[in-house]
Write a structure and sequence with these properties.
14 strands; mainly beta; about 5% helix; eight-stranded antiparallel beta barrel; 2 domains; Porin; 2 helices; Thrombin, subunit H
Length: about 350
Amino acid sequence: MKTLILSMLLIPGFVFALEIDEKLTVRIVKSSESKKTLMINRGTEDGLVEGDHAKFIVTAGIVARAVLVKVSPTRSVWSVYRLVNADFINNDAVMTIKISPAVKITKDETQTLVQDDTPTKVSGDPTTLGIPLAEGAQDLSVTDESLSDADLKSLEESRSPVSIVEKNIEILGIINVSALTGATDSGNGKSFSNAQTSHHFELGGEYYARTERDWYSRLSLVGSAALMRLSNQAYNGSASTNDVTEFSLGTNWHPFTLPSVTGDFIPFFHAAFNFGNVKSSYTAGTETITKSDLSSNGSSSGFSLGFGFKFYTYKGLGARVMVDYYSRNEKYTEDELKNTHTKKVSGPRLMLGLSYRF
């Protein structure tokens, strides 16, 4: 019975462990000066267990081979025992790990895979020292106490990720609402009451590249749909209402800071074109007019160019501010008086929005 209970407790750990040749996209959170100690943003929640061996791979090929020596739910520390190309190992670098069988390494230095990979020190600060080969590598036992389980837990709790490149889809919302009412009492005994409101509801999305080594990784695709209304009443009771339904497609360019950085302001340039439909209506006040109510429908097209800043937390919550030059051309069909009109709306805007990346 004890054996059965023990087996039931151990089975879940094996069920969720990664198998040989399984792959996982990871980001290097921290690396030592020697590039032989790596902390990545994956842990037991992703199926990693102590003793796992893996190849670290980028598009150009294998970068390193390492063994997992410390692990927590969302972090793991790897000991590199074969360093192929240290140039690719940098903080925030994104690569793929492929779980692989353990490599048996002899204690004879003349027969090691890479002689220089065997450090001469096994204690001290792992950020400045090389690391011993892990137990599974059949070379040196892990006696480095400079990174204990408590240290790893502390790092996990206190250090937020500095990149959210894996969260490459963003939902954005913008809202601006006023709900007023205008009332006019004229000297001839007439009174008028109309809504005096404005609103701008916008829901959009943004798509980012997941491989930040490519040239296009600083560009993102953005699209949105907006509902806009402006109602007003003049002193004499005349009122006008303009409704716009608009769709926008464009791109954001982040030339100075990668768009996945967290805890810092990310400047960006914006360019987009828009299209949609409009409706404009007019209600007369005390002035004399043949028909008191006039309206017309039409189509719209235009563009926007701007500059702004984004800010993200490591959980994917974001905020942005943008100043842009906005232009919209409206072309209307005939109204009740058989007149056709065109209208241009343009000028600067200040846009504020909240978002979430996943």
